[in-house]
Structures are given as C-alpha cells and as structure tokens.
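Human: We require from you a protein record containing the residue sequence and its fold in token form, and nothing else.

Assistant:
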Amino acid sequence: MSTQDRDAPGLMREIISDLQEGVDDPNFKWGSMRAAEKISNLYFLLNGSLPDDEETNSFKRKVSDLLRKGGNPSGLTILIGDCYRYAERGRLDGFHQACLLRSKLQVLQDEFVDLEEVVHEPDRGEIAEIDELLEEVSDDAPPVPEKDIPNWLPDSHWWWRAPKQQDMSHEERMRRILYDENDWMG
C-alpha cells in the first residue's frame, strides 16, 4: 500500500502496532525499524509536521513509551548501525541511504524520544559519530539530486546538502554509486 493510499490515523495505528509487537516479543527487533519507516511516511503525508492536538500528543507519548521497551531499543540500535555503515560508504554508494536513515533517526529524536536514553550503552554517542562521518565524507560524496531529497525535511537535516561537490557530473556520480558493480569489471 502506498503512502498516498493511507490516512494519518491509520498509519499511526500501524506504527503503534509495530512497536507493540516489539514489546510483546523481546526478540522481535524489527518493530521499531518498521515504525521508523512508517513515521517517515507519516511525515511525508503531513508535509513534515504532526498536528498539535490531543490525539497526536497521545500518539507521541505512546510511541515514546513503546520505543523504550522489549526488542524496540535493539531495533533502534540496528537502525543506527545501518546508518553508520552507509555513512562509512558515503564517498561511494552509501551517502543517499545514510541520509535517509539519519533523517528517520532525527525525526524520532525530535518528536518522540531521546535516542541516547533508549539505545544500549555501547551505542550511545553513535549518532554524533554518524554526523562527524557524514561531514568527513562530504568532501568527496556524490551529491543527492535535489529531486531525491524529501520535500518535507526541515533545514536542520543538513546532511542532505553536505556534499561539497554539488556540481559533480551525472557520470561521475553514477561511477561512484555503482563502484562495486564497476570494480569487478576492471
């Protein structure tokens, strides 16, 4: 089902359901990851802001509570780890995906829960490391085309426009993005 086919209340119910599944089964780590994806879809649907009403505030409190329980913190840790791995590949094929994941994490941070309080101890501080890494690779990262940057993102999501070589040719950009495929061919 596409985002356009969903209504905000229905998407909010799906998010709660995904997170509840992570609470009910502590070994289920995908609930928070699916919820993060759906929260991004919700933001797209609502043009980047949740209404300030009692229903939405109740939803935000419930999401915040559920993110802290069961397998949900582990799912967030996986999401953060995935973002870090993509950021490490930022000079090649990872920058765009790192930006997508970093924005999902930022929305969770801004609207629902302090991620540093939720993730497991060894992973605290990793978001700051991701930001440093995105800044570091931006000197040579292939830029994300403007049409591919979600229009609902606030300016605080600086990483999308961080690549220094915004005038990189399409051919060079594709050479970097398809590096693994091209590398084996010599």
Notes: The chain has one domain: 3-183. Residues 1-5 have pLDDT under 50 and may be disordered. Residues 93 and 178 are 7 Å apart (CA to CA).
